[in-house]
Structures are given as C-alpha cells and as structure tokens.
Amino acid sequence: MERVTPLLEVRDLTLRFGGVTALNGVGFTVGRGELFAVIGPNGAGKTSIFNCLNGVYRPQRGTITLDGRRVNGRAPAAIAGMGVARTFQNLGLFEQLTLIENLMLGRHHLMRTGMLAGMAWWGRAKREEVDHRAACEEIVELLELEPYRRTPAGLLPYGVAKRAELGRALAMSPTLLLLDEPVAGMNVEETEDMARYLIEVRRELDLAMILVEHDTRLVMDLADRVLALDFGTPIATGSPEEIQRDPKVVEAYLGGAA
Ligand SMILES: Nc1ncnc2c1ncn2[C@@H]1O[C@H](COP(=O)(O)OP(=O)(O)OP(=O)(O)O)[C@@H](O)[C@H]1O
Predict the structure, then answer these.
(1) Where's the ABC transporter domain (predicted)?
(2) What ligand 1 atom has the least distance to the C-alpha of 212?
C-alpha cells in the first residue's frame, strides 16, 4: 500500500524554560488539507507548540518537518517563507491601516519587486501589485469583508476584526495555517459565523490548519483529528469522537463531567 507522507511531521518535541517543561515528547502529523486541533487546559503547552512551529521558540529536542523540509532551526521569517502563517489571539493587525492595507502587508513576503527594483521595472512592479491586490480581494470576498475594505483595522467591530485577522494570515497564501483561539471572546452568534467562515476557507483554499481553541464544541465540530495535551505531555490523539470518549481526556479536560 502506498504511504502518503503528511504535510507536517512533528517528532519528540521537548521544550524547557529553566525548570518548567512546557512540552515533553510531543509528536503528531498533519495531512494535506487536514484540520487538526490541539486542546488542553491553561498552561498545557498549546501556544508553545505554535511558537516552535513558527520558529519563535527553539525546542531542545525533536524535529519538525514541512513537506519533507526541516523547519526547526530556521528563523521565523524563513519559516513564514516556507508557507507557515498564524493568527494571533490578540490580533496582529495594524490599527491605523485599512483592512485591505493590512491584507496587502500580509503578502509582503511574496512580493519579488522591492522599492529600487520597482523604480527600475515600473511595469513589472505595477503588474505584481495588481496581482497581489486581486489575491487580497478574493480573500475579502471569501470572508465577506467588502463593507470594511477601507475601514482602519482599529475601528472594526471585534468579530469582524477577528475575521480580518484570519484574512491577514490567509493573504500570506500559507500551506499551513496556525489558528490561535479564533473565537476567543466571541458571543454565540460571532462564534457560529467564524465556524462557517473556517468551513468555507477549507472548502475554497488548499491548506492545512492547526486549531488551538478553548471552545471544545467548535473543536469537536470542525476538527478531523485532535491532540489532547496535559502539562506538556500528549495524552491522546484521535477523531473528535475518540477524544471525547477517552478516559484520560475526560479526566484531564472535562473534569470527569462528560
Ligand atoms: N517564554 C516563556 N518563559 C517561561 N515559561 C514559559 C514561556 N512560554 C511558556 N512558558 C510556560 O510553558 C508552559 C506552557 O505554556 P503555554 O503558553 O504553551 O500553554 P497554553 O496551553 O498555550 O496555555 P493557555 O491556554 O493559557 O494559552 C506554562 O507552564 C508556561 O508558563
């Protein structure tokens, strides 16, 4: 039987801060087009995984490979260039810039023509900008952000700002998108909207996603597979149904209430 290689392979990741072991032998794979979720109580190590994946933290042990290429050991900008984007819980938008300007900035690392080259090759730079604008407009349409195109990000209503944050990360045309608590602080209606947009993103774009989220209902509704962590140690990986039934998960996360 042919073995399909996963997009992302994380093996034996161990990360320590002084005496604190934030991650202890964490391993998982994410397939192409898969929506993979990481759950765990506060301090379980979810954010640390993201920070290892995007090169902000350097794990003491373990390997991370994307499409067969080693990720860990590279600088964050190089990893972004490999196609790893993330959204931030506290929003990574520039408040003074309009929504569309924020999306254009998200594409910055994809632009070949720098300022000087742009002056020498005006035609090419112009064409490139037109292409990048078109890519941003597609994201605006996908996330139904048209009414806010020219609104400064700082003035967007909270639910819309979270969606704009998703758009900013999507503007990088990632192959792997890290979603850091996309519905944190949202009411029920906003949460349902975000779930709908994430389903739409999955349907329309060719990318894998890792979701870190405290809203377990959203995780169970959207994820293909789930990794449950407890104090930096993986305790179970499986489908949402398997995870919900796993006695260790029930004990650690649902307080025995499920
Ligand atoms: N830069 C750091 N310096 C020291 N300790 C850290 C650092 N980053 C994380 N830790 C520690 O590592 C452990 C895991 O933290 P992490 O933020 O990854 O957990 P989390 O699951 O994302 O938590 P939350 O759900 O609260 O966001 C915690 O004990 C935390 O205090």
Answers:
(1) 8-256
(2) 22
For CATH 3.40.50.300, list the domain ranges present in the chain: 1-83+174-258
The residue contributing the CA closest to ligand 1 atom 3 is 17
- Topology classification of domain 1-83+174-258: Rossmann fold (3.40.50)
* Residue 130: pLDDT band with limits 50, 70, 90: confident
CA of 24 to the centre of ligand 1 (A): 13
Q: Tell me, using a 6 A CB cutoff, whether residue 102 lines ligand 1.
A: no
ipTM over cut 0.90: yes
- The single residue listed with the structure tokens 């042990």 is 61
Predicted structure pTM score: 0.89
| Edge-to-edge order in the sheet of strand 61-66 | 20-30, 8-17, 61-66, 69-70
